[in-house]
Design a protein that fits this description.
The chain has two helices and two strands, in the order ααββ. The chain has a two-stranded antiparallel ribbon with strand order 1-2. About 55% of the residues lie in helices and about 15% in strands. The longest helix has 22 residues, at about 20-40. It has one domain.
């Protein structure tokens, strides 16, 4: 909601009936999961990021 829809953490907290800190921590956790998934797919080379397992 924060990244895609542009809601503030306060708006998310009120909408979902959660604390402001819960909204922030869930975003932090989601970013960490995405970061890990991206690292599993891509590797950094001299020319930039390349998809793992792809040759050429």
């Amino acid at each position: 909601m924060y990244v895609i829809e542009g809601f503030t953490h306060q708006e998310i907290a009120e909408t979902l009936d959660i604390s402001l800190n819960t909204s922030k921590s869930q975003l932090f956790k989601a970013k960490a999961v995405l970061r890990k998934q991206i690292k599993n797919i891509y590797t950094l080379s001299e020319t930039g990021y390349e998809r793992k397992g792809v040759q050429g």
